[in-house]
């Protein structure tokens, strides 16, 4: 007798004057090496809303059912881009600003870099530091993915379609990612605390070759990936409401000292740790 698949959980709430709804469901076990998570969202606000999106060790896919988000470069002073139907954001070492006029609705799919490599079929270096229209990257078979998702009646049906599309592409892929997949998991499992020379020796390759493999299949060198993993663990720790001085957090998450933590936070967020924490 088969166990029942988990159903989407719907949460609703307010944040200031904004109202939001969030649908979540864990990915199927088979796809967890490729999908970090996914969610459906609706947000209504009385006016324009801008957010600072911190860099993460994942490829973010946004499928939009409403007006397209404005995506601004770091600093927000170089104009904005619109991607009707959604966009894909590769790994980066700095923040991105997004903005809407008071309403957004869509689906966010957070892929591991390996999952994105297999799903889109392009070298991840082509996405590094870039935001690209989802329609330009999606395989021809899934060119109308946004429209098909919006037409479905429930979030569970949408999540099912996303999983089927990803599973098909993984089964069809003829890209060898095994070595990098193992190294990526090692860096994640150790919270970024991995000696890169030792990693190269363990893999049996030169450091240069390991860097080349990571650029191809992840988008960034392993050292930058490790920094992103460490920073993401810090961010998730703070989002969970945990406390601690910056010196204590630096020690806990593997930074040399508080100044080292502050430099990384400044690069990744464009602001100080205290201000970033407030966001």
From TrEMBL:
<dbReference type="GO" id="GO:0003700">
    <property type="term" value="F:DNA-binding transcription factor activity"/>
</dbReference>
<dbReference type="Pfam" id="PF12833">
    <property type="entry name" value="HTH_18"/>
</dbReference>
<dbReference type="InterPro" id="IPR050204">
    <property type="entry name" value="AraC_XylS_family_regulators"/>
</dbReference>
<feature type="domain" description="HTH araC/xylS-type">
    <location>
        <begin position="177"/>
        <end position="279"/>
    </location>
</feature>
<dbReference type="GO" id="GO:0043565">
    <property type="term" value="F:sequence-specific DNA binding"/>
</dbReference>
<protein>
    <submittedName>
        <fullName>AraC family transcriptional regulator</fullName>
    </submittedName>
</protein>
<dbReference type="Pfam" id="PF20240">
    <property type="entry name" value="DUF6597"/>
</dbReference>
<feature type="region of interest" description="Disordered">
    <location>
        <begin position="1"/>
        <end position="28"/>
    </location>
</feature>
<keyword id="KW-0804">Transcription</keyword>
<dbReference type="InterPro" id="IPR018060">
    <property type="entry name" value="HTH_AraC"/>
</dbReference>
<dbReference type="InterPro" id="IPR046532">
    <property type="entry name" value="DUF6597"/>
</dbReference>
<keyword id="KW-0805">Transcription regulation</keyword>
<keyword id="KW-0238">DNA-binding</keyword>
């Amino acid at each position: 007798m088969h166990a029942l698949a988990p159903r989407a959980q719907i949460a609703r709430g307010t944040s200031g004057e904004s109202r939001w709804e969030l649908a979540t469901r864990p990915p199927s076990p088979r796809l967890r090496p490729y999908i970090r998570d996914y969610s459906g969202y609706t947000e209504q606000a009385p006016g324009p809303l801008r957010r600072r999106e911190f860099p993460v060790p994942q490829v973010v896919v946004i499928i939009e059912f409403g007006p397209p988000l404005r995506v601004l470069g770091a600093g927000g002073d170089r104009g904005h881009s619109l991607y009707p139907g959604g966009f894909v954001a590769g790994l980066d070492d700095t923040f991105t600003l997004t903005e809407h006029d008071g309403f957004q609705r869509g689906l966010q799919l957070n892929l591991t870099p390996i999952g994105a490599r297999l799903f889109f079929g392009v070298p991840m270096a082509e996405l590094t530091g870039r935001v690209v229209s989802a329609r330009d990257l999606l395989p021809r078979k899934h060119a109308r993915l946004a429209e098909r998702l919006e037409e479905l009646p429930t979030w569970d049906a949408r999540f099912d379609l996303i999983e089927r599309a990803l599973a098909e592409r993984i089964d069809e892929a003829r890209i060898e990612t095994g070595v990098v997949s193992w190294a990526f998991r090692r860096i994640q499992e150790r919270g970024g605390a991995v000696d890169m020379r030792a990693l190269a020796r363990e893999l049996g390759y030169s450091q240069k070759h390991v860097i080349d493999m990571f650029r191809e299949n992840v988008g960034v060198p392993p050292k930058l990936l490790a920094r992103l993993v460490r920073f993401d663990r810090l961010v998730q720790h703070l989002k969970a409401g945990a406390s601690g001085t910056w010196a204590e957090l630096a020690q806990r998450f593997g930074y040399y000292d508080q100044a080292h933590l502050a430099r990384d936070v400044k690069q990744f967020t464009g602001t100080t740790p205290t201000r970033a924490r407030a966001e």
